[in-house]
């Protein structure tokens, strides 16, 4: 069982099912495929709300570099796949970024929130 909290900007997309993945910093105990996920917004406040429950379909490693290079490390075979521009844009849109340059928005978000390079998990449900 894992609890994930979502910023207000992503909450509606998680709740409606539009957003079916998240990218998170590495945890002490990484999320695993098949694990039950409890997806919340506003945790640790009086406005905390469960958005949905889901099962993890995949939990792969991800690296986002300041140059814009993105590498996904698949758990099944530990292979690193470098995403193309089209793949990066698709990743950003699937993660809830919607502007004309969704990947640029995502890169800015990660630079400001986590710093780059970023190493973490790409979690899909």
What spatial order of strands do you see in the largest sheet? 2-8-5-6-7
Gross morphology is: globular
Give average pLDDT, whole number: 96
Helix content: 10-25%
Distance between the termini: 13 Å
Number of helices: 3
Q: Quote the beta fraction.
A: 35-45%
Radius of gyration, rounded? Answer: 14 Å
Content-based structural category: alpha+beta
Number of strands: 8
- Biggest sheet features: 5 strands, antiparallel
Order of H and E elements: EHEEEEEEHHE
Query: Uncertain runs with pLDDT below 50, 5 residues or more?
Result: none
What does this structure look like?
With 125 residues, the protein is of the alpha+beta class. The chain has helices at 8-16, 85-94, 102-113, and strands at residues 2-6, 21-25, 36-41, 49-55, 58-64, 70-73, 80-82, 118-124. It has a five-stranded antiparallel β-sheet with strand order 2-8-5-6-7. It has a three-stranded mixed β-sheet with strand order 1-3-4. A hairpin with a 5-residue loop joins strand 5 and strand 6 (70-73). The longest helix has 12 residues, at 102-113. The two termini are 13 Å apart. The relative contact order is 0.24.
Task: Summarize this structure as a short list of keywords or feature phrases.
125 residues; alpha+beta; five-stranded antiparallel sheet; three-stranded mixed sheet; 3 helices; globular
């Amino acid at each position: 069982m894992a609890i994930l909290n979502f910023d207000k900007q992503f909450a509606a997309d998680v709740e409606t099912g539009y957003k079916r993945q998240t990218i998170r910093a590495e945890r002490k105990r990484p999320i695993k495929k098949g694990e039950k996920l409890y997806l919340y917004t506003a945790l640790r406040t009086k406005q905390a709300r469960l958005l949905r429950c889901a099962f993890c379909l995949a939990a792969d490693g991800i690296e986002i570099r300041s140059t814009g290079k993105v590498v996904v490390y698949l758990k099944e075979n530990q292979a690193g796949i470098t995403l193309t521009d089209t793949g990066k844009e698709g990743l950003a849109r699937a993660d809830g970024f919607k502007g004309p340059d969704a990947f640029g928005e995502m890169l800015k978000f990660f630079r400001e929130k986590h710093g780059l390079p970023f190493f973490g998990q790409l979690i899909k449900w």
